[in-house]
Amino acid sequence: MRPKGICPNIGTLFWDLIGVLHGRYERGAAKPTIEVASKIARILGVSLDYLVGNTDMELDKTVIDRVVEIQSLPDEDKSPILYTLDNCYKTLVPKRLSQNKKPCIPERLLCSSLTELTSAPGSTPGMAS
């Protein structure tokens, strides 16, 4: 299996590294441990769920990185960010669903909201300074 965007040479090198095990996995003679499967997913840059076929959705690394950054913030800093995300989501999703489009939050909107929040410390979320 090679996810979109992964160079065939990387996949070849990767499978060469685990050699015999790959053949056994392909034939069904062995199954990787959860630790090995997790490492394979990490090397391929996909989630474990995606690797084992539980989901067709690939997770966007940029979004995951931002979520991790937000998660590491103190609660008082997280609160206005989550407030803004909730409001953007509540506004955009019904509109997109009525247009039969996938829900999304445009990155430009998200970035401008986050910039406004960080440039106005102590201001009430969603209110002009």
From TrEMBL:
Q: Where are the transmembrane segments?
A: none
Query: What is the protein name stated in its UniProt record?
Result: HTH cro/C1-type domain-containing protein
Q: Which Gene3D superfamilies match?
A: lambda repressor-like DNA-binding domains
Q: Its domain of life?
A: Bacteria
The entry lists its GO molecular-function terms as:
DNA binding
CDD domains found in the cross-reference section: HTH_XRE
Q: Where is the HTH cro/C1-type domain?
A: 24-51
**What is the native source organism of this protein?**
Fulvivirga imtechensis AK7
InterPro entries given in the database record? Cro/C1-type_HTH, Lambda_DNA-bd_dom_sf
